[in-house]
Amino acid sequence: MAIEGVDIVKAAAFLGAGISMGLGAIGPGVGEGMAAAKACEAIGRNPQEAGLLTRTMLVGQAVSESTGIYSLVVALLLLFVV
Amino acid sequence: MTLDIEIGVKIATFVGAGISMGMGAIGAAIGEGYTAAAANSALSRNPDNAGDILKNMLVGQAVAESAAIFSLVIAMLLLFSSTPNPQPITIWAYLAAGLCMGFGAIGSGVGSGFPAASACEGMARQPAAGRRLTTSMLVGSAVCQTTSIYALVIALILMFFDFTKQPFGPTWAALMGAGLSTGIAAIGPAIGEGKVAGACCEGIARNPSSAGPITNLMLLGQAVSETTGIYGLLISFILLFKGFAATPDLAPAFGLVSAGLCMGLGAIGPGIGEGLAASSAVSWLGRNAEAQPILIRSMLVGQAVSESTGIYSFVVALVLIFVM
Fold this sequence. Notes:
The complex is a heterodimer. Chain A is mainly α. Helices cover 87% and strands 0% of the residues of chain A. Chain A has a domain at 28-82: F1F0 ATP synthase subunit C (F1FO ATP Synthase). The two termini of chain A are 25 Å apart. Chain B is mainly α.
């Protein structure tokens, strides 16, 4: 079987997409969990401020999510565009 | 040529057994060491309760050890079971089985150490709640073991299911992807669940009267942490049993390996993150029982956001399998 250049390029793009999304998901998952952990702690200490704390948690998590979305975009680019 | 394949299969069993036992030994040893350290610090605080603390330490360590025992079983099976019909695909199946069990045992070993350590420290603080602490420790660490059991199941399927009828073309990659998906995905949820179980034992020691709600919240938090591990198992089952059309091309095969790698790695972060969120909610439920509804709500919202990257990985893995 002759291995063609196009085949290898496509194989590498698939592998890259998987690695990009897989590794890229680790950081946001842990980071957002830390934000949620601290928010739960703060709400346990002061339940009256639950609304404000939840809002702050969600804003912080949204920022933390961004790198996960970059990974998703790069993975989709590798799969469908390159 | 038959001789070559037989030698290849032998090499695969040796390498697979080494990977399985070598990596599988990491987690259990860390978890047990952490437990022993906590037991020592608990003994120094309350030497009168030495008998109970020591007993609890040994029971907790035994549970943490079980993941390493699964690895030992797979390694022994790889070394000593005979292969009736050695084919090139068998080499890949044995390698994938070793990788799956090796990665899969890390998280459960580390995770089971957290509840055992917290239970030992709790016994020094609250000797009267000892029985309750041991029960919660066992429930919590049993949940931690589930992902390593998934890895054991996938490793056994890889070793004993007959894949020789399927085309070698993409099947070697599907088997490799299946092993990597469940194996690597087992790490995160098990560590996260261990954190939750540890917080549960700590909370019961602080406030034994609310042991019921604390244990319930622990189980809820652990169930959410488990989800990404289940995605990994699901991707493995799809890769094992979908049945792929024969192709000599490299690209579809790499897509399947990549799907397994993507789901496996992508499950680590959300598993740990959701565990951290739940452990904090559980530990504050022990301090402030009135805040239970708002704590459950914030925990679930936080975990849902943390889950998102795991879902992205799941979607990319499914695209790699079904669309590419």
